[in-house]
Design brief:
The chain is of the alpha/beta class. It is built from 8 helices and 52 strands. The protein has a 27-stranded mixed β-sheet, with no helix packed on it. The radius of gyration is 39 Å and the shape is globular.
């Protein structure tokens, strides 16, 4: 008997040890300890009414052992077979298994079911407790059969391509602790109510599965839940259920979806919460003060919502916070001083809010702070020197505030700082007094401030600098030769300053340079040929200086060049033929210079070219025949040159004017009217000028919607080719000021988006095609100073044009000119022109001649007096005129818009 008791004690102790090991849960690894779970209530309850007490009783052990073993074995075999069939049914629903993860899931291999890939069974049995097929790229329907795996603890089917939604049968998995179906992008469906019968769930990963519906309030029943991720389900909407506050074991919550409503105050009861991400929703209201009760929080992201109000002082109680992100909201008020308590915080991001006041000095207590972003707010005052105490700081962004004063010299002590962004403020003084001590600085954004003084030679100390933006300041002096020592510099933008002198040859030593912008300064001399050595250069902008000479002859070595802009200088001579070797170039603007000679034929090799602006030069000769090879071209301006010959007849090859260039709405941002506007992805941000109706308008970027075809003010001859009508998405067409002959092609009516049509000052004859009346977007028309005749088309846009659009033609009639048939018929030799053939010319012929002469004299007197008065008060007159016609007009974005 003693021996038997010892054996019994050993069995009981071993069973207890196994059970304890089985139900162990590790937050570090959500699957550890659960795969071998032993849940008596789910086993014995299905064994023909035989209870666990009966199996452990003395009578059962000693008097009916054989009967028990037979019954247990029979029931166990039944469940093992059911588990097998469930797995085989799951495989049958799979239509694609590229990685052959299920290759050994076969009936023939059923005896080795527990060794199938991704399957694990409970010890000493063949009952399935664990399925892990994550990242197998399986395609097919998520089978309901898995709902019969009654002892399943872990189901990980993440990162596959399953469809069909979450089967309601999964609610039968009472032993389930971990459910991960994340990143099945097309799974779809809603969260089944039955799932909340799995009351022991600890881990739920349903992110990125294209779920619909709302978040059920029944989540509050899962009181053991520790991890819940429903993020990246853009069709899951509604509000956050307050019942989540019942999940007091919750440590991880990610609801980055499309939610509305407010942040629930009940979140304050989640004392174990460490990770909370509610970003990228449409949540409104304020941040509840109760959130400060979540003292275990280490990660809090509420960015990209509609949250307003103040940042609560209670957040200072979350002393374990390492990441605090409240960006892209409508928060107001001051930065709370209690943030000084967040001694472990490494990242604070409050950008794009309405915060006011000053940058609090208490931020200097945060010695573990690595990233601080307060940009795009309404902060004022100066930069506090106490920020220099944040010795771990690597990134400091204070853009677009109202900061004033100088940069504190103490910031030079931030030896770990790699990014300093202070653009769009009113900071003044000398920029480089302390900046050159930042030996690890890689990115410096200081544009649009009031910095003065020269760029010092000591800039060479910033040896790891990659981006240097100093544009829109008041910097003066020459560009130092030492700038060539910044060997890893990729972007140098110092436009819109008062720099003078020449461009140093050492620029050619910047072998990593991709973007160089020296525009709008007072630079003189030539463009150094050393620039041709910059093989990585993508953008070269030298416009609006006083540069002379020509484009470097070896510019073709810059094979990565994408943008070349040197307009409004004093450059001359011919264009180098090597420019045709820059086969990646998309934008060329060399207008308003003194270039001469013929356009090089090599330009026709630039098959990626989208924008070519060579206006206001002295180019001569014919338009190269190969120009129609530029199939990506959508903006061409060769106006105001001395070009001759005919317009190419095969314009239908210019596909950029016909089908456009494919793009997505994910391009760069520009600021218009104080707001950020997203541009098409094909946009090139480079400002240029457009001559529209004798007025210059500034265009701050180009995309394939800005279609221009300008050949005006040249010496072109011949007819307008009918193929011009194939340029179906053209918006601006100007062929004025040439010697073009023939008729206006009716095919122009095919250009349905045409906004400007200027054919004035040519030798065109015939009628204005009636078909042009269908151009419903035409806002400017000028066919004056030709030899046109006949009636002006009626209706639509033609009813908006005035006399100036049609004047100085042979015999046009109709609105806005005189009605057709009411004008004196010209004298024709041999025909008797009786009084009946004289029609009325207008009111002047019906008024007494003497009265007309008196009226004319009065008018001349008033006009002459006005001119005398203007010369007498010239300065006031200039001010009055400039207030109505500013010299630099407002820029136009996107599709052209014109002043009313």
């Amino acid at each position: 008997m003693g021996l038997i008791l010892k054996v019994l004690c050993f069995v009981i102790m071993a069973g207890a040890s196994m059970t304890a090991a089985t139900i162990e849960y590790s937050s570090g690894n959500p699957y550890s300890g659960l795969e071998d779970g032993f849940y008596d209530e789910h086993v014995y309850g299905e064994m023909g009414g035989l209870t666990s007490q009966e199996l452990h009783s003395d009578e059962s052990l000693f008097n009916g052992r054989n009967v028990q073993e037979q019954r247990y074995s029979s029931v166990n075999a039944f469940h093992e077979k059911r588990d097998l069939n469930a797995l085989l049914s799951f495989k049958q629903a799979i239509t694609s298994d590229p990685s052959r993860s299920l290759s050994n899931w076969t009936v023939q291999n059923s005896q080795n079911m527990c060794s199938w890939y991704g399957v694990r069974c409970r010890r000493h049995t063949r009952r399935v407790v664990h399925i892990d097929l994550h990242g197998s790229d399986l395609e097919g329907t998520l089978s309901f059969s898995l709902g019969s795996l009654s002892l399943l603890n872990v189901m990980n089917l993440s990162r596959n391509n399953l469809t069909g939604g979450i089967p309601p049968e999964f609610g039968q998995l009472k032993a389930l602790r971990i459910l991960d179906l994340s990143n099945n992008w097309i799974l779809g469906g809603s969260i089944p109510q039955s799932l909340f019968n799995c009351s022991g769930l600890k881990w739920i990963g349903l992110n990125s599965i294209n779920m619909t519906g709302t978040i059920p309030a029944e989540f509050g029943r899962l009181v053991e839940l520790e991890h819940l991720d429903l993020s990246e389900n853009s069709h899951l909407s509604g509000s956050i259920p307050a019942t989540l506050g019942n999940c007091t074991s919750l440590s991880y919550l990610d609801l980055k979806i499309n939610l509305t409503g407010t942040i629930q105050t009940e979140f304050g009861s989640l004392n174990e919460l460490e990770y909370l991400d509610l970003s990228s929703n449409k949540l409104s209201g304020s941040i509840p003060t109760s959130l400060g009760n979540c003292t275990s929080l280490s990660y809090l992201d509420l960015s990209s919502n509609l949250i307003s109000g103040h940042i609560p002082l209670t957040l200072g109680k979350c002393i374990f916070l390492s990441n605090l992100d409240l960006a892209w909201n409508s928060l107001s008020g001051h930065i709370p001083w209690t943030l000084r308590n967040l001694s472990k915080v490494s990242s604070i991001d409050f950008h794009s809010n309405n915060l006011s006041g000053t940058i609090i000095v208490e931020l200097g207590f945060l010695q573990n702070l690595e990233t601080l972003d307060l940009s795009y707010n309404k902060l004022g005052g100066t930069i506090p020197p106490s920020l220099a105490n944040c010795s771990s700081l690597t990134s400091l962004s204070l853009d677009s505030n109202g900061l004033v004063g100088n940069i504190p010299y103490q910031l030079g002590n931030l030896k770990n700082l790699s990014t300093l962004s202070i653009k769009d403020n009113n900071i003044s003084g000398f920029l480089f007094e302390s900046i050159t001590n930042l030996s690890n600085l890689q990115y410096l954004f200081a544009s649009n401030n009031n910095f003065i003084g020269p760029i010092p030679n000591s800039i060479r100390k910033l040896s790891v600098l990659k981006n240097l933006y100093l544009d829109l300041n008041n910097l003066s002096g020459p560009i130092p030769h030492s700038i060539g020592e910044l060997q890893v510099l990729e972007v140098l933008s110092i436009s819109n300053n008062k720099l003078f002198g020449t461009i140093p040859n050492s620029i050619g030593d910047l072998v990593s340079l991709t973007n160089l912008d020296l525009s709008r300064n007072n630079l003189i001399g030539g463009i150094p040929n050393s620039i041709s050595a910059l093989v990585s250069l993508s953008s070269l902008v030298l416009s609006e200086n006083n540069l002379v000479g020509t484009i470097p002859k070896d510019i073709g070595n810059c094979t990565s060049l994408n943008i070349l802009s040197a307009h409004s200088n004093k450059l001359s001579r011919t264009l180098p033929t090597s420019l045709g070797q820059c086969t990646n170039i998309q934008f060329i603007d060399l207008s308003a210079n003194g270039f001469t000679g013929e356009l090089p034929e090599s330009l026709s090799f630039l098959h990626q070219l989208c924008v070519l602006i060579l206006a206001y030069n002295n180019f001569s000769g014919h338009i190269p025949i190969g120009f129609t090879n530029l199939t990506m071209l959508y903006a061409l301006d060769l106006s105001n040159n001395k070009l001759s010959g005919k317009i190419p007849s095969d314009l239908h090859r210019l596909q950029g004017f016909i089908t456009g260039v494919p793009y997505l709405n994910d391009g760069p941002y520009v600021q218009e009217g104080g707001t950020l506007m997203r541009l098409p992805s094909d946009s090139m941000i480079e400002e240029t000028a457009i001559d529209i109706k004798r007025h210059m308008y500034s265009l701050s970027y180009f995309s394939s919607t800005n279609t221009i075809f300008y050949l005006s003010s040249n010496n072109l001859t011949g007819e307008i080719p009918a193929s011009i009508g194939s340029l179906s998405i053209l918006r601006l067409l100007n062929l004025s000021g040439n010697q073009l002959e023939g008729v206006i092609p009716a095919s122009i009516s095919n250009i349905s988006k045409l906004e400007v049509l200027d054919l004035s000052k040519n030798n065109l004859k015939g009628q204005i095609p009636e078909e042009l009346s269908i151009l419903h977007e035409l806002s400017i028309l000028d066919v004056s100073s030709n030899h046109l005749c006949g009636p002006i088309p009626r209706g639509t846009q033609f009813s908006t044009f005035n006399v100036s659009s049609f004047q100085e033609n042979k015999c046009l009639c109709g609105f806005p000119l005189h009605p057709c048939g009411e004008r004196e018929i010209p004298m024709i030799k041999g025909i008797d022109n009786s009084r009946n053939n004289i029609v009325k010319e207008g009111w002047f012929n019906r008024v007494d001649e003497k009265i007309s002469i008196v009226a004319l004299g009065i008018g001349l007197g008033i006009g002459f007096g006005g001119i005398i008065a203007m010369f007498t008060m010239w300065e006031k007159a200039k001010f009055w005129m400039s207030s109505f016609w500013p010299i630099k007009p407002q820029p136009f974005y996107g599709v052209y818009r014109f002043p009313t």
